[in-house]
């Protein structure tokens, strides 16, 4: 191929095409050189079935009809971008593995059992999964790990605060958990054994080494996260504020392009962004 010829754009599919992230992804793929929308999937019975994906996303006709035949779409594309629900994502991971395509997973709220199934599917497909696909949050997680390591649990207590729009169905957010994992990693402890996800009533004093979570929901907030390191007489707050869903969509498209031609396995956005040590 000569240098002047444009490379063939990577064929992407969006599942959950009618959702908040699905529509944002369709719009952003349409603006991204090197990527093309080649499939759009919604659940059986959705009012979006049979409609044009571009019309749903408000970017005009793209010639891609929304269907509920996920496998039929997956065999004709190179990657699928998935921001849906845990149950749907587990099913899509099995189909993406059958079709041997890249599966980018932004869905949050997966149980340990869901994650084990996704891990199994990653034996046959390139799976990139993250609770937050934005550059800013992934960089923040690196800073949180450093801060948690430098400021030991004898003196500094870690609390994670998040706020999202009123439609969000899972808590704590995937991002809050990702930041909690980063803090736990920095302290060389397991998050599972040290997290306090709810406080109510007469809780007694805070346990040393705990990583606490607090969840707020309301309005149209796209996603706010703060990691607070509270010490004797001083407090450090590391924060990220998402102003627009396009930051997540851009990250997901970048992940799909990065995943092309890679060995099957489970990867994170830190791998995609080159932020893994
Ligand atoms: N990692 C990241 O960077 C980000 C992650 N997220 C996560 O992405 C997920 C989706 O968020 P959001 O877009 O706001 O949610 P929405 O509810 O707006 O969108 C989800 C879409 O998935 C569809 N869906 C559900 N089940 C299926 C199925 N079996 N097959 C096909 N489509 C299906 C829904 O259809 P219907 O409504 O008809 O049920 C809906 O259109 C959440 O888990 C959220 O936390 C969100 C933003 C960023
Ligand atoms: O549901 C959302 O909207 C978001 N979900 C992700 C999360 O659970 O952290 C990412 C982002 O904050 C928006």
Summarize the structure in words:
- The protein has two domains: 10-129 and 245-273, NAD(P)-binding Rossmann-like Domain (Rossmann fold), CATH 3.40.50.720; 135-242, 2-Layer Sandwich (Dihydrodipicolinate Reductase, domain 2), CATH 3.30.360.10.
- The mean pLDDT is 96.
- It is built from ten helices and twelve strands.
- With 277 residues, the protein is α/β, with parallel strands linked by helices.
- Helix 5 links the parallel strand 5 and strand 6.
- It is elongated, with a radius of gyration of 20 Å.
- It has a seven-stranded parallel β-sheet, with helices on both faces.
- It has helices at residues 20-31, 53-57, 70-74, 86-99, 112-121, 135-150, 174-186, 191-194, 246-259, 269-273, and strands spanning 10-15, 35-41, 66-67, 79-82, 102-105, 126-129, 157-164, 195-196, 211-217, 223-231, 234-242, 265-267.
- The structure holds NADPH dihydro-nicotinamide-adenine-dinucleotide phosphate and ligand LZUJQKHR.
CATH topology term of the largest domain: Rossmann fold
For CATH, the homologous superfamily of the largest domain is named as: NAD(P)-binding Rossmann-like Domain
User: In terms of per-residue confidence, which ranges show pLDDT below 50 for 5 or more consecutive residues?
Assistant: none
CATH class bucket of the largest domain: Alpha Beta
Q: What small-molecule ligands were found?
A: NADPH dihydro-nicotinamide-adenine-dinucleotide phosphate, the ligand O=C(O)C1=N[C@H](C(=O)O)C[C@H](O)C1
Radius of gyration based on Cα positions: 20 Å
């Amino acid at each position: 191929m000569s240098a002047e010829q444009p490379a063939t754009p990577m064929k992407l599919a969006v599942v959950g095409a009618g959702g908040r992230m699905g529509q944002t992804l369709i719009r952003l793929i349409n603006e991204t050189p090197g990527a093309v929308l080649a499939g759009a999937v919604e659940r059986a019975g959705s009012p979006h079935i049979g409609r044009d994906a571009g019309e749903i996303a408000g970017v005009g006709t793209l010639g891609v009809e929304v269907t509920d035949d996920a496998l039929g779409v997956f065999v004709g594309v190179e990657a699928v971008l998935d921001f849906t629900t845990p149950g749907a994502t587990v099913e899509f991971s099995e189909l993406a593995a059958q079709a041997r395509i890249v599966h980018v997973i932004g869905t949050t709220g997966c149980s340990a059992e869901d994650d084990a199934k996704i891990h199994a599917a990653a034996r046959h497909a390139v799976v990139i999964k993250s609770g937050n696909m934005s550059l800013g949050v992934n960089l923040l997680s690196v800073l949180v790990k450093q801060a948690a390591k430098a400021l030991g649990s004898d003196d500094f207590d870690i609390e994670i605060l998040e706020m999202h729009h009123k439609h969000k169905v899972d808590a704590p957010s995937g991002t809050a958990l990702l930041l909690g994992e980063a803090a736990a990693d920095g302290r060389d402890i397991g998050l599972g054994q040290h997290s306090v996800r709810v406080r109510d009533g007469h809780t007694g004093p805070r346990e040393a080494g705990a990583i606490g979570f607090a969840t707020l929901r309301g309005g149209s907030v796209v996603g706010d996260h703060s990691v607070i390191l509270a010490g004797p007489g001083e407090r450090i707050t590391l924060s990220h504020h998402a102003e627009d869903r396009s930051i997540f969509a851009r990250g997901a498209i970048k992940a799909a392009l990065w995943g092309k031609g890679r060995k099957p396995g489970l990867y994170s956005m830190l791998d995609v962004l080159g932020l893994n040590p």
